C-alpha cells in the first residue's frame, strides 16, 4: 500500500510540473540568440567550442530540465544549465575575441540584465 501511494505521489508531481512562463521562455530564447550571434567561444570540460555548438549543448540541457519541470525562471535556467557541467561539475567559461574568459554565469547574467534593460517593445520583437 505504501508503495502504491509513493508511485501516485511521483506521478501526480510530474503531472503538476509546470512549463516556464511565456516571459521566461522568451528571455531564455533571447539568451540563446545572444549566444549564437556572439561569435564567442564556450569552454566546457577542458575544451573550447563554437557558440553554435555551445547553444546546441545548452538546448539539450534545457530540454531535459523542461521535462523535469525544473526551469522556473530565467535565472534557474542559467544556474542549472549554463553554469557548469552536470557530469563533472566543472564550470563553463565564455571567451569573446581576445578578452579573458569569464565564468558563463557572469556572461549570461550580464546578457539577461541587458535584455531586461531594453524597452519592452524591443524585447517582444525577437
Description:
With 126 residues, the chain is an alpha+beta fold. The protein has helices spanning 2-15, 22-38, 51-67, 74-81, 104-117, 120-124; strands at 41-44, 47-50, 93-95, 102-103. Strands 2-1-3-4 form a 4-stranded antiparallel beta sheet. The chain is globular, with a radius of gyration of 17 Å. Mean pLDDT is 88; it is low at 3-15.
Radius of gyration: 17 Å
How many beta-strand elements?
4
Name the average pLDDT.
Answer: 88
Low-confidence stretches: 3-15
Content of β-strand = 5-15%
Tell me the helix content: 55-70%
The rounded distance between the terminal residues' Cα atoms is 51 Å
H-E order: HHEEHHEEHH
Content-based structural category: alpha+beta
Main beta sheet strand tally, sense and closure: 4 strands, antiparallel
Strand line-up of the largest beta sheet: 2-1-3-4
Shape: globular
List keywords for this structure.
single chain, 126 residues, alpha+beta, four-stranded antiparallel beta sheet, 6 helices, 60% helix, 10% strand, disordered N terminus
Strand and helix map with partners:
Elements: H1 2-15, H2 22-38, E1 41-44, E2 47-50, H3 51-67, H4 74-81, E3 93-95, E4 102-103, H5 104-117, H6 120-124
Antiparallel strand pairs: 1-2, 1-3, 3-4
Helix pairs in contact: 2-3, 2-5, 4-5
How do you describe this structure in short?
The chain has helices spanning 2-15, 22-38, 51-67, 74-81, 104-117, 120-124; strands at residues 41-44, 47-50, 93-95, 102-103.
